TrEMBL record:
Residues 6-53 form the Helix-turn-helix domain. It comes from Cohnella yongneupensis. This is Helix-turn-helix domain-containing protein. It comes from the Bacteria.
């Protein structure tokens, strides 16, 4: 069973970029994410749709 949410390192591995690039994308609002108690989390389905260029209906936060 796949996890529903991903942390920075897991999302970076899924996308194929460094975790530094992920932090930059989050800071610049380029990638959809949520902050929960100081942690940056990504919803797997939302990230996969974002990669395909599909509108997710969710703004990057």
């Amino acid at each position: 069973m796949d996890k529903i949410t991903l942390d920075i390192k897991e999302a970076a591995a899924l996308i194929g970029v460094s975790h530094t690039t992920m932090y930059t994308a989050v800071r610049e609002g380029q990638i959809p994410h949520k902050k929960v108690r100081g942690r940056i989390l990504f919803h797997r389905d939302t990230i996969e749709a974002w990669l395909r260029g599909e509108p997710s209906g969710q703004k990057a936060q």
